[in-house]
TrEMBL record, chains A, B:
InterPro entries, alphabetized: CYTH-like_dom_sf, CYTH_domain, NeuTTM/CthTTM-like
Name of the molecule in the record: CYTH domain-containing protein
Domain of life according to the entry: Bacteria
Residues annotated as the enzyme's active site: 30
Species of origin: Devosia ginsengisoli
PROSITE patterns, per the entry: CYTH
Record SMART domains: CYTH
Span of domain CYTH: 2-149
Amino acid sequence: MGREIERKFLVMSDAWQAAATGSMLLRQGYLSSNAKATVRVRTTDDMRAVLTLKGAVEGISRAEYEYEIPVADARELLGMAEPHVIEKRRHLVPYGGLIWEVDVFLGRHEGLVLAEVELDDEAQVVTLPDWVGVEVTQDDRYNNASLSRADAIPG
Amino acid sequence: MGREIERKFLVMSDAWQAAATGSMLLRQGYLSSNAKATVRVRTTDDMRAVLTLKGAVEGISRAEYEYEIPVADARELLGMAEPHVIEKRRHLVPYGGLIWEVDVFLGRHEGLVLAEVELDDEAQVVTLPDWVGVEVTQDDRYNNASLSRADAIPG
């Protein structure tokens, strides 16, 4: 098992773009999301696919299990997950010794931009770039499983 | 993707035991079972583990995706699935050119014995052994996900 510890913020400006070092298109769908577990299938640039099981959230961390699966399977599983699918372009932005992931949402969530940063432990001090705004780590409306069920941007 | 086509019956006597050729202990839990998809984790003799995603049932068949995963992960995932876990000993019983699987349930479903046979296509003719009784293929109470949620034997 891995453990995912991450913090998430709204993005307030485009200032991150100058520092972005790469991007990828993520398409991800949810076969299940309940109190016990979230089951996510994700393709990256339609070339690589991962099945991820996440346990219940505890504070800002949760158990996470990832398995690489054939892309052909993933495309079918995304079909099975419809309409609970989201699409976003993820940009990698180094800042303060960490790699920030800036997710620019597409489709029905177009206009939403979130920044995530993964931590080694919950107490880790993070230097916030000035292009991030409100922290939404604990705001369930902004977790991807919720977004996949929502019709539009939360607000 | 594979496709699972199977028929399932109640078992009426122990006459299958004489023909059984082997058995294994299955422990399986459900991280999700909704109209869209069932997500099952299963260990076999606590030595091999498989994560299985099944799509919606169509008649007697459904899409099925199987991925081998580390047993250590599976044990943790079974913990996550609690109390929606069932345990059964599966006996392999050759009959009429097919391998029947006779599942003897343990724990809170002790006393329940089901026989399953996997088919190549939905129209395949099956010779029924005389130790099977009522067919329960379409009886949702006897699917394993339902059993994992039930307190006792259906009836």
